[in-house]
TrEMBL record:
It comes from Notoacmeibacter marinus. Keywords: Isomerase. NCBIfam families: CM-like. Substrate binds at residues 17, 34, 45, 94. It is an enzyme of class 5 (isomerase). Pfam families: CM_2 (PF01817). Residues 7-98 form the Chorismate mutase domain. This is chorismate mutase. GO terms for molecular function: carbon-oxygen lyase activity; chorismate mutase activity. SMART domains: CM_2 (SM00830). Its EC number is 5.4.99.5. GO terms for biological process: chorismate metabolic process; salicylic acid biosynthetic process.
Length: 100
């Protein structure tokens, strides 16, 4: 992650956009890293005979996202929506290999 200025320290839209772009790049790096864990989950779920979708885990991840967002002053509904998409993508990726 790169050095950050606070939003208030940005004096121009150009500076602000540079910070937003840097944050976006960091988010992509973290999402790419997260996907490597999904790939590992595929392997472990096959060994442990687990399905791609584990409803209790889905609920836990979404609840964690809402809580973390709320703790940071971020919109919990938006966080849940974003994480729902990430979780569904992950399950679809797993399902291609191990099924439901």
């Amino acid at each position: 992650m790169t050095d950050r200025r606070s939003a208030q320290q940005c004096r121009t839209m150009r500076e602000l956009r540079q910070q937003i772009d840097a944050i976006d790049a960091d988010l992509m790096e973290l999402l790419a890293l997260r996907s490597t864990y999904i790939d590992r989950a595929i392997e472990l779920k096959q060994v442990e005979k687990l399905p791609a979708r584990v409803p209790t885990r889905v609920a836990e991840v979404l609840s964690n996202a809402r809580r973390a967002a709320n703790d940071r002053g971020f919109d919990p509904e938006l966080a849940e929506t974003i994480w729902h998409e990430i979780v569904e993508w992950s399950i679809a990726r797993e399902s291609k290999v191990i099924g439901g």
